[in-house]
Amino acid sequence: MTDTTFADLGLSKALLDAVAEQGYEHPSPIQAQAIPAVLEGRDVMAAAQTGTGKTAGFTLPLLHLLSGGSKVQGNQVRALVLTPTRELAAQVAESVNTYGKHLPLRCQVVFGGVKINPQMMALRRGTDVLVATPGRLLDLYQQNAVRFNQLEVLVLDEADRMLDMGFIHDIKKILAVLPPKRQNLLFSATFSDEIRALAKGLVNDPQEISVTPPNSTAERVEQAIYPVDKNRKAPLLCKLIDDGNWQQVLVFTRTKHGANRLAKQLIASQITAAPIHGNKSQSARTKALADFKSGAVRVLVATDIAARGLDIDQLPQVVNFDLPNVAEDYVHRIGRTGRAGASGKAVSLVCSEETKELKSIERLIRQVLPRENVPGFEPSHDLPESALDGRPSKPKKPKKPKQHQDGQRQAGGDKPTQGRHSGQGSGDRPAQSRSGGQGQQRPAGEGQPRRRRRRPQPKPQA
Question: Do 251 and 319 reside in the same domain of the chain?
Fold first, then answer.
């Protein structure tokens, strides 16, 4: 595949010129397989992780197909791309505009966290490509701002993350209003059972493409574990950044509050940093990402959902300040570095309380991660040597049941805010809401011993 050029794939001259202007000549493996399949009009299921070039793998053939079609009418959409987060939506739209610069096609992007009226006005003339997050798209449809009678192609990007974020009900609502005759493209990091269940009602005789072995980590990424006590993680991170002269570092935390706290600690140590998560306004998130890309900010502190789909070229360092609760997220995290043939380093600051998460990760990737102690930061409790050595683990003491409260951390990492949801990563929360039954105040008198009422004494008779 290395000798294949974009000119061999059957793309139009306008697209080839745009690709050449970006400095690309040879397609990546996912592009070499997906582009011909999409051009043939086939439904496609593609398993590809971030950094493999999958966005161009569907935007290029999509633009080729649309360039030869009919003119779009008012409020209509010819191609719909659904993404789980605002940042990914913006990046897909940027890709469409970059590669479609020589074509007379219109592209619009819509997501939550910003005013809806300008988006409604922009859709009045219709658009050839609409990139959207599910919640905001449903809002626009319910207000008659968008119609799908002319829809030709549907793309589900990062489908696994959309399911993880709970968008399945929104996706089903959207599918119900789309015309049944259309081309469907589904892109996901892996083909899990949930993804295949979704695909059954979506794609028709699809061509399956997989360019990454399941749950594998990039060969060019150097991985290391730094054992450290929990309260010494921030000072150790500052030392690693200073000693290594790291100029661009993406740091993952488990919670939004943790991201805010770490960013403040880094700034206090004279290291420019910015947090990015679902509680930040869209303008703040856009600015943080722009400053990070330009070099004005050295460290971007992110939660998993907010960081999903971030397109940052040649990112040299990724740091797991907290190990993820879900082992698969480790693979996604470190996939942000070592992209497009470049080398990278992924380090994890692991305390003894994260032994369970570390074992899960090593079992998943079938790899023992090397431990490196930093002088002056040796932990008070050693980490296990390996999760793959076959030795029986010590029996665990039964945990006391914890009382769940509204706002308790979920498996996804970020905390839901009380009351209205914060819209992690997308600004469009799934339609369903979760009520925090416990932890709320009881109505007066509920669950408390009742006071005895005094029985009225009989009045003395006259």
Answer: yes
Contact criterion met (CB below 8 Å) for 14 and 103: yes
Same domain assignment for residues 86 and 120: yes
**pLDDT tier at 23, thresholds 50, 70, 90:** confident
Position 53, amino acid = G
Average pLDDT over the chain, rounded to an integer: 81
pLDDT tens string 81-107: 999 988 889 989 999 999 999 999 999
- The count of structural domains within the chain is 2
Q: Which domain holds residue 40?
A: 6-210
Could you report the per-residue pLDDT of 386-409, keeping only the tens digit for each? Answer: 545 444 334 344 444 444 333 333
Q: Starting at the edge strand that comes first in sequence, how are the strands of the sheet with 221-227 ordered?
A: 221-227, 344-350, 317-320, 249-252, 299-302, 273-276
Contacts of 54 (CB under 8 A, 6+ apart): 30, 31, 34, 46, 48, 157, 187
* Distance between CA atoms of residues 66 and 89, nearest Å: 19
Q: Residue 306 is part of a domain; what is its CATH number?
A: 3.40.50.300
Neighbours of 29 (CB within 10 A): 18
Instruction: Give the pLDDT band (50/70/90) at residue 220.
Output: low
pTM comes to 0.61
Question: Where is pLDDT greater, at 429 or 109?
Answer: 109
- How many Cβ atoms from other residues are within 10 Å of residue 457's Cβ? 6
Q: Cα 449 from chain centroid?
A: 49
Distance, CA of 146 to CA of 127 (rounded, Å): 9
Pick from 337, 365, 393: which residue ends a domain? 365
Please indicate, yes or no, whether residues 178 and 239 belong to a single structural domain of this protein: no
Classified as helix, coil or strand, 153 is strand
Residue 459 belongs to some domain of the structure: no
- Are 51 and 145 within one domain? yes
- φ/ψ bin of 309: left (φ > 0), alpha (ψ from -120 to 50), beta (otherwise): left
Identify the three-state secondary structure at position 208.
Answer: strand
For residue 299, count other CB atoms closer than 10 A to its CB.
Answer: 26
**Helix segments in 216-315, DSSP class H:** 233-244, 256-268, 282-294, 304-307
Q: How many CB atoms lie within 10 A of CB 152?
A: 20
* 298 and 262 within one domain: yes
Q: Which residues pair with 46 in a beta bridge?
A: 187, 209
230 inside domain: yes
Last residue of a domain, one of 365, 391, 413: 365
- Whether 255 maps to a domain, the answer reads yes
Answer yes or no: are the C-beta atoms of 188 and 162 closer than 8 Å: no
- Is 399 inside any structural domain? no
Nearest C-alpha neighbor of 299 from the set 324, 316, 284: 316
